[in-house]
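Note to self: keep these together.
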Amino acid sequence: MKQYILALLVLFLIPAIGRAQIDNFSQQNQEYNQESGRMDQGGSNHFSWGRDTTKSDKPIPIGLNMWRIDERFGDVIPTEADTVMYRFQNFNNTDGMSGSYNVLGNLGSPRLNRLFMDRSVFSETFFMEPYSYFYTHVNEFMFTNTKSPFTNLSYHRAGNTQDGEDRVRAYFATNINKISGIGFLLDYAYGRGFYNNQATSLFNGSLYGYYLGDRYNMHAWISSNHIKMGENGGIDDDAYITNPESFSQSFRSKDIPTVLAQTWNRNDDQTYFLTHRYNLGFDKALISEDSIAKLTPADSTLFKSLKDSVLRVRIANDSLLRQQVRDSLYQQYMDDLALPTRFVPVTSFIHTLKVRHGMHGYYSYETPDFYYTNHYYGDQNQVKDLFDELSVKNTLGIALREGFNKWAKAGLTAFATHELRTFKLPLSMGANGLNRQSYTENNVSVGGVLSKKEGKVLHYQAVGDVVLLGEDVGQFNVDGTADLNFRLFKDTITLSAHAYMKNLNPSFYYRHYQSQFTWWNNDLSYEFRTRLEGTLQSKKSGTTLRIGVENIKNYTYFAMEKTPYTQNFEVAGYSHNTVVNQYTGNIQVFSAILNQNFRFGIFNWENEIAYQKSSNATALPLPDLTLYSNLYIKFKIAKVLNLELGGDVRYFTKYNAPDYSPAIGQFVNQDRNSYVSIGNYPICNVYANLLLKHFRFYIMGSHINSSMNGNAFWAPHYPINPMVIRFGLSWNFYN
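Structure:
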């Protein structure tokens, strides 16, 4: 109840806050600088001025631009700053902005994208990848250039002190000068869990710095993550959700028994990243020859600067000497004029270093009898499986910039990479504690990039690399993208294409895994993937159509094996074992995703419909249809308060969705002898979303149809949380 009262107080305070700020801010347009890639305020191209009345009447410049970087070369990729109200109410949803993820229900729990084309392949961050809601890779982190110190504080809340969720984020950025800056991000999320034994605790601290000079560029980033998740193995009986009338009494979510207790997965991850480059190039005048001619002073003006009176007399009677003196004075004048120039890089020498250290632990102090099929060592009620991994990756590259080299009219980059990986896996329990086995892998790869980024009509990029030496020798990846932009009937049309061919060695933990309950050493074939994908986008009609097809040979995946066990000569349940399977044939996946947005005055209706079909639903199960629909009205109050009122719905058709294995912390295919289907159930939310200058706020009723009986599960045996009120706020400060 306290959070609801706080939400109402904030709603009442918003108009007062607005009146206090209206007179302190004004806005004016600022064009995007194509040459430098800089934007005064990310995404909106606005520049505004504010006043800090606590110090002086001098206006504080307000404006920022944000960007991400390419992980391999450190290329700057401009992006829109997170300062708009659009779908802010969905920011803290673990199931994603449009609900496309299967999750375990609680805040920050592991998740898996139902849209196959958006899944990653064999991530190097094996244990962290299911936590993609919270865990941020370096190429996803946002760097900031700001006109004055910038701080963003946000808070999200749901439920109460027994079952609720809290998340606090603080982002700070400041410039040292116009071309360098530093900043940090602190992010903490805590979900108590609406069902027993599923509490989550997630913390991230990130620190960054950058320098973007003409000759030298640098980005540095340090990130530390601590993630702890309670594992409950799902609820004991799905009938508590699907058929509650079968029980003689009603149950709250906290009253429903779960399979596991006193069981946790814990991950600690530190990443140290540095990318820098040195540019060779030339200075280009910003003033044309015609403009310079207009600056040429008259002879009388030039000769006024001549101090030698004797020489003045001589040049009056000697036309040749006069011309020589005039040329000398003109040259001196132009040297003193210091015409503005811009440095144009032609060739870049690049070095990128990434060091990552990860630790994973699986702990259990109350393992049910017969829950696991195998038990390799130790006491099943004193489980402490510890994994340790370290990777060090160095990349050296040389880039020839687009349009400045006779050998490469497009941009051309060549690179070489060395990666060292070490792993320590549990082996046995000795007298002095846990014994572990070490593995070491090295790879040397080379590759190149061909790209065209200049211009407004056609852009393309082709990237290729191959491993020449090491554990993954023979692995290769060829990836290409292109886009064509043109005007058609007063509309802007974009045609995009994406294609790749990958020959991949399954990542380490598919090949080797050792723990108290799960163990394998597999000799796996390389997985071969080809994809062709196209996207049509119409800006005027609000239509985006994305169609793709992928073929996979030797598809590698985790699967659950369940073995029945008996008590009193009857089957009492099933024990669990996780294995790695590889389908040696070919699997084809077809995908079509349509986004269609409609606008009628203040009425807005946004839709995303995805159709997918897998040729082998046993190895690669996918829902045939996934959709998201968002209907709302958007208007202003008193010309300053932006308001959105609406509701959205998430839905996917019934399918044999992947199960979840607490033992390895990953989603796995279900045992084919005990399939449980989920889906064919809508999840409905209603919300109010507000924006006032630099302040955003939302209040939302999530899963308002939870009283409706049905297959209300995000994953097999993991129910969707019951109806709850959520709210959140975000405030930007410039001072």
